[in-house]
Amino acid sequence: MSEMMKAVRLHAFGGPEVLVYEDAPKPRPKAGEVLVRVHAVGLNPPDWYLRDGYRMLPPEWRPRVSFPIIPGTDISGVVEAVGDGAGTVAVSDEVYAMVRFPAGLAGDSRAYAEYVSVPASELGIKPRRVDHVHAAAAPMSLLTAWQFLVDLGHDEPNPLQPDQHRPVPLAGRTVLVNGAGGGVGHLALQIAKWKGAHVIAVASGRHGALLRDLGADEVIDYTRTKPEEVVRGADLVIDAVGGPATRRFLPTLKRGGALFPIFPLGFDAGMEAAELGVTVSATQVRSNGAQLTEIGRLLDAGTIRVVIDSVFPLADARKAHERAAGGHVQGKIVLTAA
Ligand SMILES: NC(=O)c1ccc[n+]([C@@H]2O[C@H](COP(=O)([O-])OP(=O)(O)OC[C@H]3O[C@@H](n4cnc5c(N)ncnc54)[C@H](OP(=O)(O)O)[C@@H]3O)[C@@H](O)[C@H]2O)c1
Predict the structure, then answer these.
(1) What residue ranges line ligand 1, CB within 6 angstroms?
(2) Are 169 and 317 in contact (CB under 8 A)?
(3) Distance (Å, rounded) from C-alpha 316 to C-alpha 51?
(4) Which residues of the chain, if any, have pLDDT below 70?
(5) Domain coordinates of the chain in residue numbers?
(6) Does domain 166-280 have CATH number 3.40.50.720?
(7) Rounded to two decimals, what is the model's pTM?
(8) According to CATH, what is the number of the domain 4-139+287-336?
């Protein structure tokens, strides 16, 4: 009989109530994989997209799943066992990862658990001065911001557009970050500042003080002022809210500028972007352990910090998803598993 662990599983799609904390088989690392004792799990929108049966995707794009599924992608923990040929880390090493993304979209990432088996190439060395809660909060948001803004890190085909996404220069440029209080937004803001950009952060009013503290040069409270009515001549807009409303940022950009919708579904720039001389480009984040190790140095140095909205025990994953559904998240929501 297989050894058991505690995990959060789905036996059906639905609201937060379908997240069940229960016994599940403890994974065994296959060749090239590492078994990690999970200390903390970071939450991301794909966790609720999966829980909900990916209803936001066109039917032909929805991954087929077989229940039960353990959701979640982002973890921080300690190496428990090393599979054949996965010898880049050793037992007791502290690691963090975004597990099998996008390969695991159908529920094969399995992060909401006491143990998770992770391909060795996806593991980053956890920054030493950063605790497991903050490390687990980072991977998907941080890799997304990094792969959009600094280095794509792979040459896999782009599922969202015919061409590869290309980052643009940031030093001395004016960069608007929409959704700047959220997971991707607050890290994109800091990366743009670190690269020497002048950053305009757009968020609801409660995030204002934090965003200035993180380095924003200007803050726009979108509940009072529409950014598209006051901003002109920006070099880059990173829209971490996205969807069809991304279109309104086109006139804020100068000719030769770029618009990066982090959630591009429902937005077709069409002729308008071409007429304005604006490049529109998006990509899908991919697991990358080497990048996590590299960016971990910036976390260790405090150059970039991860902001925590709230922390729940793994057993209360349902409450954590209810918090997410309440919106206006500031930074990241995390589950603790150890
Ligand atoms: N391309 C990829 O591979 C990739 C990777 C990661 C995430 N994503 C997508 O990117 C999006 C953001 O992800 P996330 O993890 O950062 O989500 P998040 O943590 O929930 O952040 C979203 C932020 O948007 C803000 N917001 C909501 N409505 C707004 C509006 N009208 N104007 C300005 N800000 C608004 C929210 O706070 P306030 O309203 O209080 O300001 C919140 O802070 C999601 O749709 C996600 O699916 C895509």
Answers:
(1) 44-45, 140-141, 144, 178-179, 181-185, 202-204, 207, 222, 240-242, 262-263, 282, 284-285, 328-329
(2) no
(3) 15
(4) 1
(5) 4-139+287-336, 166-280
(6) yes
(7) 0.98
(8) 3.90.180.10
